[in-house]
Amino acid sequence: MSLLITDECINCDVCEPECPNDAIYQGDEIYEIHPHLCTQCVGHYDEPQCQQVCPVDCILIDEEKPETQAELQDKYEKLQEAKK
After folding, report:
1. Which of 3, 15, 21, 76 is the least buried, fewest Cβ under 10 Å from its Cβ?
2. Domains and CATH numbers, the chain
3. Based on C-alpha coordinates, what's the Rg of the chain?
4. Ranges for the 4Fe-4S ferredoxin-type domain (predicted)?
5. What is the mean pLDDT of the chain?
């Protein structure tokens, strides 16, 4: 599943540079996550880096976009291929 940022976001700017897939961007009011780019850091790290640095714990699993570990790995591999 991709992650999502809740409206508890304080726009502290620490999550965006931590995302290895450039999935996090500044939305109209708070930071948001492109679900098609979010792999929960699968392929890069053991844990989602944005969640690790968020001071208010407002980055959660998006239950509306379920993905298995294998699907996240596949998404990561496709994103890496596209960078070539």
Report:
1. 76
2. 3-83 (3.30.70.20)
3. 12
4. 1-29
5. 95
